[in-house]
Amino acid sequence: MTDLWYSEYHTDDVRFSIKVTKQLCSEQTPFQKIDFFESETFGTFFTIDGLMMVTQKDEFAYHDMITHVPFAVHPAVKRVLIIGGGDGGTAREVCRYPGVKHIDLVDIDERVVRLCQQYLPQTAAVLDKDPRVHMHFEDGLQFVGRAQEGEYDLVLVDSTDPVGPGEGLFTNTFYQNCYHALADDGILINQHESPYYPAYAHEMLRAHSKIKNTFPIARVYQFYIPTYPSGHWLFGFASKKYDPIVDFQPDRWNALGLKTKYYNTDLHTAAFALPSYVREMLEHGE
Ligand code: SAM
Question: Is this model's pTM higher than 0.90 or not?
C-alpha cells in the first residue's frame, strides 16, 4: 500500500503534511505549477508551486473574512474588483450581496479557474453561473493600471505569495493604481500573509508599509485558518474614508440575513484587536 503525503515547508525546519488519498492532477502552466489532491480531513485541496491555496474544509474562513468585513463597513458596494482569486471562493461570497452590480475577476492564469471548475465546484461553480462576474485572464498589475479613476467601490486582493507571478501585486505601483481605481469612499482588502514565521512577517510588513504610505486609513485584521503557515493569517484593510470599526454597521449587515460559517458581527471588531507582538511589529518594524 502506498503512503502518499503532501508536505509544505513552513520554515527550513518546520513542515506541515496532509495524507493524500488521491492525486487528481498536476499541471505546469506558463505561470506556475498547479496540483490537486484529495484527503480525508481537508477534502479536495490544491497547491500552486507547492504552496497551499485552498482546501474544501477550511476555505470558508478565508473567503468569509476577505469579503464580509468590508461589506459590513461600506454601505453601498456596487462595483467590485477581485485580483487573483481564480478558485472563485471570494467571488462566491461577493455574489451573495444583491446590491453588487458588477464584479471583475482578474487572474493571471486561466488554468486555475478551469481546474477549480472541474475539481473544486464548491468555490468555482459561481464563476459561470452569475452574470455579474466578468473574468479576465491577465496580470492584475496591468489590469488595475488601466482602470478608470474611481471605477470600483471595493478591491479584493486574493493573491498568491509575493514570489513568482504574485510579486508585482505587492508593489507601490500596484497599491497606487488600486487607490486611483477606487471611489472616494472605496476600500481595499489585501491578502497580508502571516505575522508568525519571520519570512512571512517580513512580507506582511513590507506590504503594510506600502499600503500605509498610499491610503489615509490602513488597518490590519486577523483570522485563523489551519492549513496556512502557523494557522494565523492577516488581511490589510485600507480605505480613503471608512474606518473599519468607527464606520462598522452591524445592524445593517445582520438585516441582510446572510448565514456565514466564520464571520459574525461580534467577531468583526475583535478581529482588529491584534496580539501585542503583532501590534509592536506593525508600529516599529521587525
Ligand atoms: N487564498 C489563497 C492564498 O492566499 O494562498 C490565494 C488563492 S488564489 C488561487 C491566488 C491566485 O492569484 C492564483 O490563482 C494565481 O494565478 C493568481 N495570481 C498570482 N499572481 C497574479 C497576478 N500578477 N495577477 C493576477 N492574478 C495573479
Answer: yes
